[in-house]
Write a structure and sequence with these properties.
This protein is α+β, with helices and mostly antiparallel strands. It contains three helices and six strands, in the order ααββββββα. The protein has a single domain, classed as Aspartate Aminotransferase, domain 1 (Alpha-Beta Complex).
């Protein structure tokens, strides 16, 4: 699947070092998350499976943060809890910090382990495990 033009534009608008990180993440996510849809969602690149947000990234003040919506359930030491619910992620300041093996493993888990964020409003904030 081709990376959405809006995501390519998002990546291109980053400073040189951050752009390298964003491009590397987008390529890896797209290559390893088969059957996904990608788009800009809430101003950031996000990949979805069956309408459920799975993984995305965005530029923070001092890094690029990779975020897995169900990442806390992966039981991976390289992912830190981020925000609320079941989200966990990794932060990068240089493209060389991205470990391709870890990222591939996390992406595999992101397809296998999912919480239903798509219907969280309908369920009044309650998350239900899908897979």
């Amino acid at each position: 699947m081709a990376i959405h033009k809006d995501i390519r534009a998002y990546n291109a608008a980053r400073a040189a070092g951050d752009k390298k990180i964003c491009v590397a993440l987008a390529k890896a996510i797209d290559a390893n998350l088969k059957g996904s849809e990608c788009k800009i969602w809430h101003a950031h690149p996000v990949w979805f499976l069956d309408g459920n947000p799975i993984v995305g990234y965005h530029k923070l003040k001092d890094c690029v943060r990779l975020l897995f919506w169900s990442g806390r359930s992966f039981e991976e030491p390289g992912l830190a809890d981020e925000g609320g619910f079941k989200t966990a992620g990794a932060r990068y300041t240089d493209v060389d910090q991205i470990d391709a093996k870890d990222l591939k493993r996390w992406l595999k888990k992101s397809a296998a382990i999912q919480w239903d964020y798509k219907n969280i409003v309908k369920r009044k904030g309650k998350l239900v495990r899908l897979k």
